[in-house]
Amino acid sequence: MNVCMAPCPVVFDLDGTLIDSAPDIHASVNATLQQFQLDPLTLDQVRSFIGGGVEVLWQKIIAALQLQPSMQADLIAAFMNRYHDATGLTRLYPGVREALSVLADRGHPLGICTNKPAAVTATILDHFGIRDLFGVIVGGDTLPQKKPDPAPLRKALQDLGAHPTAPQAIYVGDSEFDAACAEAVPVPFLLFRLGYRQTPEEQLTHRAAFNEFSELPELIATFAEA
């Protein structure tokens, strides 16, 4: 039985899936902490905090540094002044551009569903010249809900033309947030192993996993085969 008949919609997470943005997020975090005369964090620490959106990022930073929760609003405001156009250290994962082009050429409607703010997401996609490949962008501030709530992914899929209650589509991501979101919709989840997840692969619900984006177009094609 087919999971979906091609060309079905394919929606992607962003941070840790299409892009390695941790270095830019880390730099923006530490510049903000320096502004408040606070101790810096390591890249590995910041990477482990990514995935839940800006508010969750700073909740985790505040807990790690044992700061007063009342500082969160000021820290986020200062962070966003730097983060909204932080692109200099961010990289596409190898093979992303080529894989997206193949999927688009095959007629798959493509979308983004991320907990990153929508404006920051658009800036990053413009920076890499791939924004036009995506028919919809759902950011962390597009709806009141964020992943792992299924509402953002459902919106992305509906905007791409999928059935509102039984979408025949695929979600591609790297994290616990993504796996739980896809399971809740539900749609098949493809796990990019080299992203930012903190949970062992075998503990995440996923249909398949991959290390190289060169594998992705044919992996997706298998879901259209009888």
TrEMBL record:
* Similarity annotation: Belongs to the HAD-like hydrolase superfamily. CbbY/CbbZ/Gph/YieH family.
- Which GO terms fall under biological process for this protein? carbohydrate metabolic process; DNA repair; glycolate biosynthetic process
What is catalysed by this protein?
Answer: 2-phosphoglycolate + H2O = glycolate + phosphate
Its recorded name reads: Phosphoglycolate phosphatase
Q: Which Pfam families match?
A: HAD_2
- Which controlled-vocabulary keywords does the entry list? Carbohydrate metabolism, Hydrolase, Magnesium, Metal-binding
Q: Which organism is it from?
A: Paracoccus caeni
Annotated Gene Ontology cellular component terms:
cytosol
